[in-house]
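General statements about sequence and structure are easier to judge against a single worked case. For one protein, we set the task of working out the structure tokens from the amino acid sequence alone. This step matters because it turns folding into a mapping between discrete strings. The amino acid sequence and the backbone structure tokens for this protein are reproduced below.
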Amino acid sequence: MASSLKTLQSKACQASHYISKHGTAYYKQLLEQNKQYIQEPATVEKCNLLSKQLLYTRLASIPVRKEAFSKELDYVKQLWKKKQELKVEDAGIAALFGLECFAWFCSGEIIGRGFTFTGYYV
């Protein structure tokens, strides 16, 4: 146990040295590559305007997403009506999708409880 702690400590120290040595260069490179997204001058008013634009753009996209969802739902309804003709591949895909939804639900529950598996705080 103590040796693994020393190894972990050593790796954390190496990572810290690497970041302190190369972090500034990476930061500058990242800003240079994405300078077209930087708003000058960065004022509070401009930030408020951008946040409102994002909000209302997202709100405007709701009907398009709703239409895509209803098309998917209609497809599932058609598959359910023809469930006698359902292939094994389609059933497998549906099962995997259901499993993925359940996994996301469980993950959300765990995160919501503060990353505890029992629901009790220790």
Summary: The first helix runs from residue 2 to 33.
